[in-house]
Structures are given as C-alpha cells and as structure tokens.
Amino acid sequence: MNISSFGSVGTLILGAVIVFTLLTILTILKRKDITIINVPIFVGYRARDRVMNDSEAVFFSMLLKELPDGFHLFPKMRIADILETIKGEGYVYRRNKILPKHIDFLLCDSNFRPVIAIELDGRSHDAPDRVKRDKFVDELFKNCNLKLIRVIVGGDFKFAIKVITDNCIVSKQ
Questions:
Q1: Which residue in 137, 141, 160, 171 has a CA-CA distance of 20 to 30 Å to 120?
Q2: Are 115 and 172 spatial neighbours (Cβ–Cβ below 8 Å)?
Q3: Residue burial 96-121, b: 16+ Cβ < 10 Å; e: rest
Q4: From CA 155, how far away is CA 162, in angstroms rounded?
Q5: What is the pTM of this model?
Q6: Closest of 125, 153, 122, 131 to residue 58, by C-alpha
Q7: CA 64 to CA 92: how far, in whole Å?
Q8: φ, ψ dihedrals at 119, nearest 5°
Q9: How do strand 35-36 and strand 39-40 relate by DSSP bridges?
Q10: pLDDT grade, residue 148 (50/70/90)?
Q11: In this predicted model, what pLDDT tens digit does every residue of 108-119 receive, in sequence order?
Q12: How far apart are CA 108 and CA 95, in angstroms?
C-alpha cells in the first residue's frame, strides 16, 4: 500500500467516523428531553396524597388560629429559601449542604421577613443521622440569628403555640 492510497482510505475512514459520531450525538440530543436510560422523564413521579402528616396538619391548624395579625405561616420551607449562602470559598459545598433540607414551618412578619423557624420533632428525630442533621440545623439558625423552635410531637402543642405567639409579639416591638 502506498502513501497516496493510504491517504484516501484514511480520509474515508475518518469521514465515516465523523459521520457516525455526529449521528450518535444528534440521536442523544434528540432523546435527551424525552428519555434517560430508556425511561421517559415524566414516569416515576406522582402527586403526593398529602403534603403534611397528621401532627403537622394539626399543629398548622392550631397555630394559624392563634397567630397575631400581620404574621404569615409557611409550611415545608427549604432552608436554602430562608438562609442565604454567602458567596466565597466553599460556596457550592455550603449551598449543597442545605439545599435538600427543610424546616416544617416558617413564621414571617407582614413584610415577609423570617421571624421564627419551627421544627416538629417526632420519633424520626431520634435516629442517629437525624440527630446529627438537627444539630447542624440548630447551629445554622443560631449563627444566622434566626430563632428556631423545636416542638415535640406528642407534647403540649398549646404551650408551644403560646411560646411561638409570645415570640411574635416580642419581635414586633
């Protein structure tokens, strides 16, 4: 085989590889919005039956009735929507650490400024990984100067609500 015949064969092979690569990329790009690993993207999801468990629903209803005028109560708030991650070294790590976490309720004033975060602690909070998570969240809110009140499920909701509403009144002064 001489150099000139190798050149045309090499060019032909290179052309075939480029065409194959482009066709493969186009096929992947077309399928990207429709499927991932042969499973349609919108399969594997459904609406939840409820967004609060029984304890959360009872507490939410009780607290709503007792809230002072001008306060707003939000359930299931992502911590990343309450506390801002400051740009700088470690930003992505710190942001990613709080992104999947939420608190059960957030009380805001009439200007939608966070006043009190509320966590209902049921039996799941006794698990070792949850204890570690709760310690992190406690320190996080403390360092950000935002009050976090933990309410024990099975405890006296009326007393906890009194403490929360008293804190609302203090925050208005």
A1: 171
A2: no
A3: eebeeebbbbbbbbeeeebbbbbbbb
A4: 13
A5: 0.73
A6: 153
A7: 36
A8: -120, 130
A9: antiparallel
A10: very high
A11: 999 999 999 999
A12: 22
